[in-house]
């Protein structure tokens, strides 16, 4: 099996036509048939169902099409990166981030990268905790920044900064910073929080914090994006608890109560695939110097 054979398999899986595929990849049709037969023999599975009129993928072929496509993309990305290193080119860094990271570390980081490495291309992806982990594992991003995220095996993380949590209230809410005693006063309020599956780690922190005061938050609306949460609070749809940085640059008619005397903090974590630690070390060094 070689890369060309896999690419020819993927081309046939797309067209399901031996003649058109052979023409597209510039080989003779019998040669393409032999390649597919050798691939099936090597794998030990039939990949295509064939008769005189039709060609269709078997379940094994469907699976290989998905996995082989992903592996070839990763391999071609590795070739491209290796070429950039050889030529001394800056390349690119792909960064996934939560909403609050854009109100805290990311602008400073991006300015610093532009000053120190002006030829470095930076790609940003605002996403939830769950999709950030998936993007890391699929290598569609290189590093991520998210608060209180729980990293699975194979993903490393470190805290880059901590900040206080803030209760966010609509302007007409009867509780204010002056009358606030503790979180139990919000036991009967509707909350706007990230979905548990999307905000893994962060939502558990909020639940643990509220449980200390005798209740679990009743979630009325769910959103993993701070901008949406703040707009919903402004509209009087509920209250929320956000990292302090999520409120920077906002000019909405909201009340806020900073929770400076609770042990729970918003921990902004940087995440990456453990196996890529050595490769990404120059970026980590830059983050260390910036902080």
Describe the protein in words.
There is one protein chain. The protein is built from 10 helices and 12 strands. Strand 1 (48-50) and strand 2 (55-57) form a beta hairpin. The protein starts with a helix and ends with a helix. The strands form 4 sheets. Strands 4-3-5-12-6 form a 5-stranded mixed sheet. A 3-stranded antiparallel sheet has the order 10-7-11, covered by helices on one side. Strands 1-2 form a two-stranded antiparallel sheet. It has 3 domains: 3-79, Orthogonal Bundle (Arc Repressor Mutant, subunit A), CATH 1.10.10; 90-161 and 268-290, Periplasmic binding protein-like II (D-Maltodextrin-Binding Protein, domain 2); 165-264, 3-Layer(aba) Sandwich (D-Maltodextrin-Binding Protein, domain 2), CATH 3.40.190.10. Helix 1 (3-15) packs across helix 2 (18-25) and helix 1 packs across helix 3 (29-43). The chain is of the alpha/beta class and 291 residues long. The longest helix is centred in the first third of the chain and has 29 residues, at 59-87.
What is this structure, in a nutshell?
This protein is an alpha/beta fold. The protein has three domains: 77 residues, Winged helix-like DNA-binding domain superfamily/Winged helix DNA-binding domain (Arc Repressor Mutant, subunit A, Orthogonal Bundle); 95 residues, D-Maltodextrin-Binding Protein, domain 2 (3-Layer(aba) Sandwich); 100 residues, Periplasmic binding protein-like II (D-Maltodextrin-Binding Protein, domain 2), CATH 3.40.190.10. Helices cover 42% and strands 22% of the residues.
């Amino acid at each position: 099996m070689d890369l060309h054979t896999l690419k020819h398999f993927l081309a046939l899986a797309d067209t399901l036509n031996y003649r058109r595929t052979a023409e597209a990849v510039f080989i003779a049709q019998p040669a393409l048939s032999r390649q597919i037969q050798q691939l099936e023999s090597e794998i030990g599975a039939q990949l295509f169902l064939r008769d005189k009129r039709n060609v269709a993928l078997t379940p094994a072929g469907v699976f290989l099409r998905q996995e082989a496509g992903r592996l070839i993309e990763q391999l071609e990305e590795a070739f491209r990166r290796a070429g950039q290193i050889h030529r001394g080119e800056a390349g690119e860094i792909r960064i996934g981030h939560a909403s609050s990271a854009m109100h805290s570390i990311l602008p400073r980081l991006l300015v610093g990268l532009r000053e120190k490495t002006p030829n470095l291309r930076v790609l940003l992806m605002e996403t939830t905790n769950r999709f950030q982990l998936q993007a890391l594992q699929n290598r569609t991003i290189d590093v991520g920044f998210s608060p209180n995220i729980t990293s699975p095996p194979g993903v490393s993380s470190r805290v880059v900064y901590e900040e206080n949590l803030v209760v966010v209230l609509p302007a007409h809410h009867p509780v204010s910073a002056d009358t606030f005693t503790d979180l139990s006063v919000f036991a009967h309020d509707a909350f706007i929080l990230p979905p548990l599956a999307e905000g893994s780690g962060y939502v558990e922190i909020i639940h643990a914090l509220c449980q200390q005061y005798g209740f679990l938050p009743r979630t009325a609306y769910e959103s993993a994006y701070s901008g949406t949460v703040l707009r919903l609070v402004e509209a009087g749809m509920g209250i929320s608890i956000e990292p302090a940085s999520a409120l920077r640059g906002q000019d909405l008619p909201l009340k806020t109560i900073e929770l400076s005397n609770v042990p729970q903090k918003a921990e902004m974590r940087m995440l990456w695939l453990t196996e890529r630690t050595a490769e990404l070390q120059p970026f980590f060094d830059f983050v260390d110097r910036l902080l």
